[in-house]
Amino acid sequence: MNNPQQPGKYDAVLGGNTPSLEGAAVLGGIEGVKLRLQNPDLKVRIAALEQALNYGEQGLDLVIAGLNDEYWEVQIAAYLILNKRTETRIKQILQKPNHEGLKLEKIEVVTVNKFGEIIQRQPRLARYFIEDLGDGVTLEMAAIPGGTFMMGSPENEAGRRDNESPQHQVTVPSFFMGKYPVTQAQYQAITGNNPSRSKGSNRPVEFSNWNNAVAFCEKLSQKIGKTYRLPSEAEWEYACRAGTTTPFHFGETITTDLANYYGYSTYGQEPKGVHRKETTEVGSFGVANNFGLYDMHGNVWESCQDHWHSNYEGAPTDGSLWLDIEENITKTLLRGGSWSNDPDYCRSAFRYIDRPIPFNNFGFRVVCGGAART
After folding, report:
1. Which of 35, 205, 320, 343 falls between 20 and 30 A from 71, CA-CA?
2. Beta bridge partners of 142
3. Cα three-residue angle 135-184-200, rounded to 5 degrees
4. In this predicted model, what pLDDT tens digit does every residue of 211-262 receive, in sequence order?
5. pLDDT digit string, tens, across residues 266-325
6. pLDDT computed for residue 12 by the predictor
7. From 3.90.1580.10, 3.40.50.2300, 3.40.50.720, 1.10.260.40, which CATH number describes the 105-368 domain?
8. 302: β partners
9. Exposed, middle or buried, 321 (CB in 10 Å: 0-12/13-18/19+)?
């Protein structure tokens, strides 16, 4: 039987084979920190990062090395520790991509109650890579970790539609998704034109349709040399929820301080808001979901690659595209709601049939990688 008072595999001990007392077994100093940073228990690793700061530049170097740890949780902890530092070299390091070529960025995630009151603000860390589209235009892609979630809405969710059922479990492989809806500047850089009615380089492209969105992805893929496409419906909802099970990734409701929708209507018990009557610049509300995605609720509808199905009977459970219903081949779908829609249309689970005719509230977001089939 193991003695809990004896040092473990990752403990450094003074005194050779001398029996150690409880609370005195683990070697202090930087060597002890190094060993604890190899511990398979992530809580021990993260605690060791904080302890490393007690050992000057050597300890700081250990925290910097934590940015490239094999575990994302340790990377986050290292970043948040370093983000408080003022040294020039630390600030320069935080601006560089990590070993996977991903830029780490501190984001803010908020949660609201049914009254629309913010009850929690949390600093989080998101990972992005950046594509250069030319002429100073870039495309930021957020790393979406793989996972399992319940797709669709529970029967007691306000505003629920029959086409959001049956709720079912889906396992989604990791992929990358646009930090924002495709902007007018990005669309112009790839296609050479801008069909939008509410002009603004940093506003989402609109007055688009599914065919335009697919054509954009094809041209972007050719230019960059990677496969870009529209998300599957499962990828979109998984990315929107980002681990949440509430109607919105913000919580029980949304407000027009957090998203752009028809604010004269309410969803929960929040006060009425404003109706902006047009798109807003992407990311202008300053709050993301847990995956570092902005504007998933409202602003513009976002096209998915799948064909429309009236419910989830027979839906894939691996996050892939659902393209096997011949009679639905001309019907696609939209997610997320828009600036002109009531808040219940902006829910994470809400589904809407796409129309072939462009509208000034239709846009899209791109993905790279994942489980989609063509």
Report:
1. 320
2. 128, 177
3. 100
4. 999 999 999 999 999 999 999 999 999 999 999 999 999 999 999 999 999 9
5. 999 999 999 999 999 999 999 999 999 999 999 999 999 999 999 999 999 999 999 865
6. 46
7. 3.90.1580.10
8. 335, 363
9. buried
Give the type of residue at 42. L
Q: Which helix (H) or strand (E) holds 105?
A: strand 103-112
d(CA 126, CA 108): 10
List the chain residues with pLDDT less than 70.
1-27, 98-100, 324-329, 370-374
Q: Any idea which residue has 């929820």 for tokens?
A: 241
**Dist CA 35 CA 48 (whole Å):** 9
Domain ranges of the chain: 29-96, 105-368
Give the list of residues 6+ apart from residue 248 with CB closer than 8 angstroms, or none. Answer: 254, 297, 346, 347, 348
With a CB cutoff of 8 Å and minimum separation 6, the contacts of 238 are 144, 147, 149, 151, 170, 172, 319
53 in helix, strand or coil?
helix
DSSP 274-343: ---SS---TTTT----TTS----SBSSEEEEEEEP-SS-TT--SSS------GGGTT-EEEES--TTS-G
Angle (CA) 304 355 155, round 5°: 60
Token digits for 370? Answer: 């994942």
Q: Is the dihedral of CA 206, 346, 281, 217 positive or negative?
A: negative
For the chain, state the CA radius of gyration. Answer: 24
Tokens at residue 356, please?
């072939």
Lookup: tokens for 269: 């018990």
- From 317, 304, 318, 295, select the one nearest 353 (Cα to Cα): 304
- Find out whether 352 and 345 touch, Cβ atoms under 8 Å: yes
Instruction: Give yes or no for a contact between 249 and 236, defined as CB atoms under 8 angstroms apart.
Output: no
Q: Which of 261, 264, 249, 230 is nearest to 374 (CA)?
A: 230
Residue appearing with tokens 């594509």: 131
Amino acid letter, 247 = P
Tell how strand 301-307 and strand 228-229 pair up: unpaired
Q: Which amino acid is at 326?
A: E
